[in-house]
């Protein structure tokens, strides 16, 4: 546990040492994002809705695992949750290896891919909550925003690095190398986890998950509406580029990650300075503008600019509203709060694939980003209402 006198750099190093497990996870996820939609659509011969379903299955699995992940972390400890997540990741990598080795058996390959997405989603649920709880326990609740921010930085940093690396591996070695790479990284994570000290389980009465969910609902709804933009971009940017005759869609995912990470590194301090609601309102507006630019992009340059604005806009929404949500929950149920809050992010990504796939099937791939922009704008409006209500409550308390 950190002390108030501990230097910021020491706190950051402790956080980074824990969220490195999240980086390994999202490096694996990044391997697959630019490759799987094309494999399902072109190699296996399924439609765009099925390609979206394959990607979205991971996020639906993560969503379903959040209550269990929060409860397990609260009761058995954060380190154990992370280790279980790494084991699930390894199993998912093995199934990816098998699925990509059987491209002529299209239904068997699809079934194996769906099963792998379920396992990787379960790993994401356990490791996302486990690393956040582990980090907060190590550096103190006063650094909650910093832990959540760094966890997100390594998430999107992993995707930014993993996406072009996955394309390179698949192109030079074959699709089997992606499953083999996931197995290797999961093994590395298990090796690193052995040397990390566990933290004590927080004692106290634990809230029921539905109670926790009710308390974080308003904040999570805004996160969900904003996160659909990322889910849409991650799932369909490859097919969107293909429909326009543009090359190198993986750079969009990389630029999204770079702008996301850069904004968090440069502006995370604004959450404590100006308040979570103020930061989230501005970020959701910026994300909406980026998605609108993607919708109307006349060339890859404008698509990249829209992607950068989307990444920068989404960057601080999650930690800004997360601080508002999590600090209202008792410490004994902190992991459950993190799980309930993250559930909305998972829901958005799980819905984005099949929903936007259906929209693309009836319109075109560009219209996906218009719908995502409108949803982010709805999140902006709700967040603005929450901000006004919070300000009114503060004014009433001050008056009393």
TrEMBL record:
Pfam families: MFS_1
InterPro entries with a match to the protein in the record: MFS (IPR011701), MFS_dom (IPR020846), MFS_trans_sf (IPR036259), MFS_Transporters (IPR050171), MFS_YhhS-like (IPR023008)
Gene Ontology CC annotation, any one: plasma membrane
Transmembrane segments: 12-36, 48-69, 81-99, 147-167, 173-195, 216-242, 248-267, 274-295, 301-326, 338-359, 365-387
Gene3D superfamilies: MFS general substrate transporter like domains (1.20.1250.20)
Assigned protein family: Belongs to the major facilitator superfamily. YhhS family.
Keyword field contains Metal-binding: no
Topological relation to the membrane, as annotated: Multi-pass membrane protein
Keywords: Cell inner membrane, Cell membrane, Membrane, Transmembrane, Transmembrane helix, Transport
Name of the protein in its database record: Uncharacterized MFS-type transporter PKB_4461
Residues of the Major facilitator superfamily (MFS) profile domain: 14-391
Gene Ontology MF: a single term: transmembrane transporter activity
Localisation per UniProt entry: Cell inner membrane; Cell membrane
Primary location class: membrane
PROSITE patterns cross-referenced by the UniProt entry: MFS
Stored HAMAP family: MFS_YhhS (MF_01118)
């Amino acid at each position: 546990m950190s002390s108030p006198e501990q230097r910021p750099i020491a706190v950051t190093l402790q956080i980074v040492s824990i969220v490195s497990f999240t980086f390994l996870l999202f490096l694996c996820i990044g391997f697959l994002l630019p490759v799987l939609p094309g494999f399902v659509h072109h190699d296996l011969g399924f439609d765009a809705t099925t390609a979206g379903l394959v990607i979205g299955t991971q996020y639906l699995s993560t969503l379903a695992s959040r209550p269990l992940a929060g409860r397990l972390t609260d009761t058995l400890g954060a380190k154990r949750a992370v280790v279980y997540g790494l084991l699930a990741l390894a199993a998912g990598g093995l199934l990816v290896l098998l699925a990509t080795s059987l491209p002529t058996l299209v239904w068997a390959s699809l079934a194996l891919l769906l099963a792998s997405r379920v396992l990787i989603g379960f790993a994401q649920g356990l490791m996302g909550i486990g690393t956040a709880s582990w980090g907060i326990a190590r550096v103190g609740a006063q650094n909650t925003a910093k832990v959540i921010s760094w966890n997100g930085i390594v998430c999107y940093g992993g995707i930014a690095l993993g996406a072009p690396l996955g394309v390179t591996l698949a192109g030079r070695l074959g699709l089997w190398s992606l499953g083999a790479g996931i197995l290797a990284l999961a093994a590395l994570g298990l090796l690193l986890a052995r040397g990390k000290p566990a933290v004590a389980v927080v004692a106290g009465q634990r809230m029921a998950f539905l109670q926790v969910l009710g308390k974080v609902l308003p904040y999570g709804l805004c996160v969900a509406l904003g996160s659909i933009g990322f889910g849409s971009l991650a799932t369909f940017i490859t097919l969107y580029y293909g429909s326009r005759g543009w090359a190198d869609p993986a750079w969009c995912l990389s630029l999204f990650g770079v702008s996301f990470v850069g904004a968090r590194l440069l502006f995370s301090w604004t959450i404590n300075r100006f308040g979570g609601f103020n930061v989230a309102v501005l970020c959701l507006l910026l994300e909406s503008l980026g998605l609108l630019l993607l919708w109307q992009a006349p060339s890859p340059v404008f698509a990249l600019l829209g992607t950068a604005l989307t990444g920068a806009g989404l960057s601080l929404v999650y930690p800004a509203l997360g601080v508002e949500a999590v600090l209202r929950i008792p410490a004994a149920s902190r992991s459950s709060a993190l799980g309930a809050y993250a559930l909305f992010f998972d829901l958005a990504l799980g819905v984005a694939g099949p929903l936007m796939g259906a929209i693309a099937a009836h319109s075109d791939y560009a219209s996906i980003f218009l719908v995502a922009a409108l949803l982010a704008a709805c999140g902006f409006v709700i967040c603005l209402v929450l901000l006004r209500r919070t300000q009114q409550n503060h004014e009433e308390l001050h008056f009393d």
